[in-house]
Design goal:
This protein is α/β, with parallel strands linked by helices and 329 residues long.
């Protein structure tokens, strides 16, 4: 089976070469999947897409016209897919629901530590032979209250790490996890989580109900000097509301591995170009903001799981069976 892999990077090629089933023929395409690039999938039986590929109704219709009947997402999130349209067209969508919760959780806590102890600033200072400690004062994580919004696999992995640090955990999720409560974590209404948390970390999916979950109202409900971390999906945050929170000192630390308009920025080397996203550039002016380019998932273990599970999803489609990872079937 021939598969067009959009948004393909060297690590995607290496991963599929090393771990995917040898019977699959991958056709690697550097470009993102858009209405303008969809024709590059001509002659393939399926496509493989990533987080910022466009799988709107218009693109899905073009894929259907090309005879594509399967989309294998090499990610967990599917907010970029028009599932209703895919079902109508008979296009099967499958994802990788849990490639490495620990990878994202560890990156999340790493961002907390880096922002708190100002490791990024200390690194640059020492390279300039500046060993002053002025401006590098942090706080103990031990005893701090951390609010986790979303307690699925990644939220649980994050909770376990923070429990080991001695943090008090407040959680909000429609589904109560016994594994979470076993950590002496408490599920509370969102308003209580905002009001009581020293640190807030987002681990929920992006849906119409969670878009701009963090907005002017929710930022105003948070403790003064709160730390906010997002390693989930960029559109969970209204960026302008967060900028206002940074300017008012309501938000004292902001860590982002995702960004609402990241599709035109992340995963590319733009160092020789002028970035015209004024909102993103404004974020970079704050000394208490740490941004990584959708890197949280990026470990050897995660890439292996992505390759293996994506391969299984494609083979299941070819053999007219299911893996349980299907969103439409």
């Amino acid at each position: 089976m021939k598969v067009a892999v959009f948004s393909a990077k060297k690590y995607d090629r290496d991963g599929f070469t090393q771990w995917a089933d040898a019977s699959l023929q991958f056709h690697y395409i550097d470009s993102r999947l858009t209405p303008q690039t969809v024709q590059l999938a001509a002659g393939c039986h399926a496509i493989c897409a990533f987080v910022n590929d466009d799988l709107s109704a218009a693109v899905l219709q073009q894929l259907s016209n090309l005879g594509i009947e399967m989309v294998a997402l090499r990610c967990a999130g599917f907010n970029n897919v028009d599932l209703a349209c895919a079902k109508t067209l008979g296009i099967r969508i499958a994802r990788v629901p849990a490639y490495s919760p620990q990878a994202v959780a560890e990156h999340t806590v790493g961002m907390m530590l880096c922002l708190n102890r100002k490791l990024h600033k200390a690194y640059n200072r020492v390279r300039d032979d500046n060993f002053s400690l002025d401006g590098l004062l942090g706080f103990n994580l031990f005893g701090k209250t951390v609010g986790l919004i979303g307690t699925g696999r990644i939220g649980l992995a994050t909770a376990k790490i923070l429990h080991g640090f001695g943090c008090q955990l407040l959680c909000h999720d429609p589904v109560v996890s016994p594994e979470i409560t076993a950590l002496n974590a408490r599920y509370v209404p969102m308003e209580a989580l905002y009001a009581q948390s020293d640190i807030i970390s987002l681990h929920c999916p992006l849906t119409p109900d969670t878009k701009h979950l963090i907005n002017h109202y929710s930022v105003g409900s948070m403790k003064d000097g709160v730390m906010l971390i997002n390693t989930s999906r960029g559109a969970l945050i209204d960026t302008q509301a967060v900028i206002t929170g940074l300017k008012s000192r309501k938000i004292a630390y902001l860590g982002l591995d995702v960004y609402e308009q990241e599709a035109d920025l992340f995963f590319e080397n733009l160092s020789e170009q002028v970035i015209d996203d004024e909102v993103f550039k404004r974020l970079l002016t704050f000394p208490n903001v740490l941004i990584t380019g959708h890197q949280a998932f990026f470990t050897v273990e995660a890439l292996q799981e992505i390759s293996l599970i994506t391969s299984d999803n494609l083979l299941a489609f070819a053999s007219n069976t299911v893996t349980g990872n299907e969103l439409t079937n």
